[in-house]
Design a protein that fits this description.
By secondary structure, this protein is of the alpha/beta class. The protein has 13 helices and 16 strands. The protein folds into 2 domains: about 1-185 and about 365-385, Rossmann fold, CATH 3.40.50; about 185-365, Rossmann fold, CATH 3.40.50. The two termini are about 15 Å apart.
Length: about 375
């Protein structure tokens, strides 16, 4: 079986979908399924069909050249041609379309693509009240193609039951939907000895909280900073984004700058060191734009629990079992978050116990090998139907 994945970006681009796609294709190749990937160029990455020597688990790999972006969507005039080339060169048995991503709509207009089956990997909705106004403004143009694509799909993979339950876009297509959670390869999170003692932490005895993600309003990092001001904990917020200046200024205004570090977008090695050396993770996201929470999943894989927002309709509170593998707090409530952090600071032993259960939940449900097996089963069923 040969699967061509069409996504937005790929490693080394930072992001949850990019991370999952790399681990999924690698695990699926180990299971004997040939893997191809067509994505967009980002930054200084080379464009075009590339020798996948750095990705030996891929039999085909191409980054379509981009000329910019529009409301988070890459603009790639050459994507239709690259899709045709990928189909002719790789000759896949099935397309696995990772959404949201407007470029996947070219499959609707490609005669060769329409001759083979496809499934949709639904990572998140493309619009809703929780999204930026620019996204909501463009969605009426996006929606007809989205629904056309879903109508043609033989199966739709959704990453959590709550997200499927609350997705308006998927309402008509629930009979096609199957729940397959996101998964990760834990070996990728091993910490090299040379970077185990990350310089990002300043104190040896404070509670160490790690937050990882793009610095954007829906992540709720401002709420975390306001909560931190009422605690004695130390915080590292790893990630890049437009909110960095605002968050630095807020930390200064709250007089907690000495306890907060903003290392920016960190390397895999530094991220792994931060994961190993922190006490717990925190993801205080505010809306369903946080569909799952890959940074929390990475923490679970190395035995670290998390404090997360209880967002209705998001996979995040489903990922973390409240009181068993982590803790839920009310979205946007800095007082509730501060109370939870202070309680954990007083009882560090419960953090260790929660971390062990979080690790076990990861092994039971989110290790990439069983997730890959579930995905392959859906892909085979789509081909055979």
């Amino acid at each position: 079986m040969k699967i061509l994945h069409i996504g937005k970006y790929f490693h080394p681009s930072c992001g949850g979908i990019e991370t999952v796609l790399m681990d999924l294709t690698r695990a699926s190749r180990r299971a004997g399924v040939e893997q191809g990937v067509l994505v967009h160029q980002q930054g200084k990455e080379n464009a075009g069909a590339i020798d996948a020597g750095q990705f030996p688990f891929l039999q085909y790999f191409c980054r379509a050249k981009t000329v910019g972006s529009l409301s988070y969507a890459p603009l790639s005039p050459g994507f239709p041609l690259e899709l045709t080339r990928a189909l002719q060169s790789f000759q896949p048995d099935l397309l696995d379309l990772h959404m949201p991503n407007p470029s996947v709509f070219w499959a609707l207009l490609n005669r060769q693509a329409r001759k083979i089956p496809w499934i949709v990997h639904w990572h998140s909705d493309a619009s809703g009240p929780e999204f930026a106004s620019s996204v909501r403004l463009l969605y009426p143009l996006y929606q007809p193609f989205e629904q056309w694509l879903l109508a043609h799909a033989r199966r739709i993979i959704v990453t959590s039951p709550p997200y499927l339950e609350h997705s308006r876009a998927l309402r008509k297509w629930r009979d096609k939907c199957e729940i397959v959670p996101l998964g990760l390869e834990p070996d990728r999170l091993a910490c090299p000895p040379a970077v185990k003692n990350s310089p990002a932490w300043q104190y040896g005895d404070r509670l160490r909280i790690l937050a990882v993600g793009r610095l954007t309003p829906y992540k709720g990092f401002d709420v975390l900073l306001r909560a931190l001001a009422h605690t004695e904990a130390e915080l590292v917020i790893a990630g890049a984004g437009a909110e960095k200046t605002h968050l630095r200024r807020l930390a200064r205004d709250l007089q907690i700058s000495e306890r907060v570090s903003f290392p920016g977008a960190v390397s895999d090695a530094v991220r792994n060191a931060l994961l190993e050396s922190c006490d717990l993770l925190c993801l205080p996201s505010q809306t369903r734009a946080e569909a799952f929470g890959i940074s929390v999943l990475e923490g679970m894989a190395v035995g670290k629990p998390a404090v997360v927002s209880n967002i209705q309709g998001s996979g995040l509170p489903w990922l973390v079992n409240d009181g068993l593998t982590g803790w839920h707090v009310r979205p946007g409530d800095s007082d509730d978050l501060a109370d939870r952090i202070k309680a954990l600071d007083r009882d560090r032993g419960v953090i260790v116990a929660m971390g062990a259960r979080a690790r076990q939940r990861f092994e039971d449900h989110f290790h990439i090998d069983p997730v890959s097996a579930q995905t392959i089963s859906v892909q085979r069923a789509a081909i055979d139907s």
